[in-house]
Prior knowledge:
The protein is an alpha+beta fold. It has two domains: 50 residues, no CATH class; 58 residues, no CATH class. Helix content is 44%, strand content 18%. It has a three-stranded antiparallel sheet with strand order 1-2-3. Strand 5 and strand 6 form a beta hairpin. Helix 1 runs antiparallel to helix 2. The longest helix has 41 residues. The two termini are 54 Å apart.
Amino acid sequence: MLDYRLFKEINDLFTSGQYRKARHLLMEVQSRSIALRDEISMLRARLKTLEDAAFLNENLQCQNGFYWLFTNNLRQGPFCPHCYESEGGLIRLERSHKTLCCPYCHATYPGMANEEFQEGDAVRHARIIPFAR
């Protein structure tokens, strides 16, 4: 933590003509300030991680062996149970006939009929928007 009395001490050193000591204290204050900024950045990242974990804890549900994310009254998924349980990754499963396949770990879940999933769960593909020239 910064010691604010150092600022007065630095000012007094400059006033009295002790420039070398004042610069040394300024470098110390600068070093402490950089360390504080690094600590704040690290704590912000940890807070974001905890907020994300709390969000998933509230909105991620396991149904019929698959993970689903409920946000804004929409059900998103299904997500690969293997990837989530082993690495914590939410990887959306891809449909292929009557199977679901994970594009990351390549786990397959055979025998899954499309009727088991509601119409709102259809996989939405990205739309490519051409750039104007």
